[in-house]
Amino acid sequence: MSASSPVRRAARPAIAVTVGEPAGIGPEVSIRAAWAARAHTNCVLLGDAAFLAMTASYIDPEICLSALSLQAVRNSGLPQFGPGRISVIDVPLAAHVRPGMLDKDNGRAVLATLDVAIEGVRAGWFEAVVTAPLQKSTINDAGVPFTGHTEYFAEQTGTEQVVMMLAGQPRGAMAELPPLRVALATTHLPLKDVPAALTIAGLGRILDIIDHDLKTKFGIAAPRILVTGLNPHAGEGGYLGREEIDVIAPAIAAARARGIGATGPYPADTLFQPRYLKDADCVLAMYHDQGLPVLKYATFGEGVNITLGLPLIRTSVDHGTALDLAAQGLGLADCSSMTEAIATAVRMADASRLAGAAR
Fold this sequence. Notes:
Helices cover about 40% and strands about 15% of the residues. The protein has helices at about 25-35, 50-60, 70-75, 105-125, 135-140, 150-155, 195, 200-215, 245-255, 270, 275, 290-300, 325, 335-359; strands at about 15-20, 40-45, 65-70, 85-90, 130, 165-170, 180-185, 225-230, 260-265, 280-285, 305-310, 315. The chain has a twelve-stranded mixed beta sheet with strand order 3-4-2-1-5-12-11-6-7-10-8-9, sandwiched between helices.
C-alpha cells in the first residue's frame, strides 16, 4: 500500500486492559477509565469477571460489564459489542479479595492476565495492551520468579532488548511544551552499578530502539533525542568522571553516523528546561532517578509508562498499586494516568497502522 492510500481504522479499536493487583486500585481505575473511553475505544478488561462486576456496581450502578469466556474467545475471536458495555475476559482469581491485603493465592491469576493479553495481540483481538499496576511480591510469593511487567513482556515475546520510557503532557509553567518523553538507559539498578552497565554498544541499541519506535509508533519522521551525561556537569571535561568521554559521546557519535538525531551528552541539571525541551522528542537519561523525578513533577500524576522495543504496543500507568488507598474504599483513586495510558495506546496504534501502510 502506498503512503497516500487510505488506512482503514476500526471505529472503536480494541485495547486489552489488564486490571493488575486485585487488592490495589488497579481494578477501580481500569473500570473508571474504560467506561469513560467507551464511546471511542473498546477497552476489554482482563480479570475476574465476578469481582469486576461487583466493583463496578459499587462505583456506579450504570456501568455495564459483559463477561466473555476465554475459551469462547479463543475459538471464535473477540465479539464486537457497542459502547453501552465494557467487555471482560474472565480470568478467575483463586481467593477472595480484601482491599489493601495481598494474597499470594491470586498471584498466578494476575500473571495469567498478561499471558491472555499477549495471546490476544497475537490472535488479532487487540491492537494494544494497557496494564494496571501489579504487586511483584505477590507473584514471587506464588512461586513464580517475576521482576516486572517490562521484563515479562520482553521474555514472553522473545525480545532481547526493551527500553522503558515515561511520557506525559507537562503542566503548570511547562504547559506550552510538547509532550515530554524520558527514556532510561538503565532502570531498576542500584546507583553504584549504573556506570558499569553503560556501554557504547548498549547505548547504541537503546538509541536505535528509541529512534525506531518514535518513527513507527508515534509517527515522528525524524526524532530528536537529547542524551544526558552521567556525572555532574556531564563530567566537567573528565574532571568529574570519564563516562561521558569514553562511553556516552562515542555512542552518540556512532548513532549519528547511522542517521539518528541524537545529541549530547548534556548536564542533566540544566537539560530539563523549556529552551531545550521545546525542540526535543525524547530525552535519554542514564538512570532512573535522573530523569523520572522531573517527568513525574511536570506531568502531575498523568504520566504514562511505555515499553519500547516490543513487537506489540504496551502502555501503563505511572503509579503503583496504592494498597493503602484501596483499603480505604472505592472512590478515592485518581484514574487520570490510566485514562491517558489508554489514549496513548490508541494514538500509538493509529501511528503504527499508518507506518505499516506507508511501507
